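User:
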Amino acid sequence: MKTLRYRIVPVTAFQQNCTVLWCAETGKAVVVDPGGEVDKILQVVAETGISPEQILLTHGHLDHVGGSVELAERLGLDIVGPQQADRVWLEALPQQSQMFGAPLVASFLPTRWLSAGDSVRFGQVQLQVYHCPGHTPGHLVFFEPASRLALVGDVLFAGSIGRTDFPMGNHQQLLRSIKEQLWPLGFDVAFIPGHGAMSTFGEERRNNPFVAD
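Assistant: Predicted structure:
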């Protein structure tokens, strides 16, 4: 039996992939990128009977963090990540809300920032932390080696890559992050992107027009 289980919960008009990850042996869990619709996320927690221990953020864009504070308050959780270079995005959440015509989300800072080389543990699961800037300067990717699963936020998508036309985006940096940080993890790694369908690094190396070998 695999130790790591997960449920993808698309939330808000952005259809952002919030992911609930848990340890099958202990029921300990994390919620990655709760972008909104907190009741929908809590329903998955109730259905699975798991015990969330923390909230993890890949980056500071509104559609990935919009429900973080509400979820943290309702479950008594710490907010962990992203990398500190995304502080400016978290501080600008009211302006992001206005820009996208979304309900106001107040600025906040996490309980703890994460950096490259850190790890996050829940139950018997340990996620490795990679710093993959380009879409945002403080973007993180979480990787679980035993199950060959990565949560890549808006770095990489099935058939595409993250946008770099937002402030502080950098196209060349994003390409470097994908090729130097993600590809070495292996062709067989499956990934959950911030939006849309799952894929594998091998599939993207073969067919993704932006980053194919």
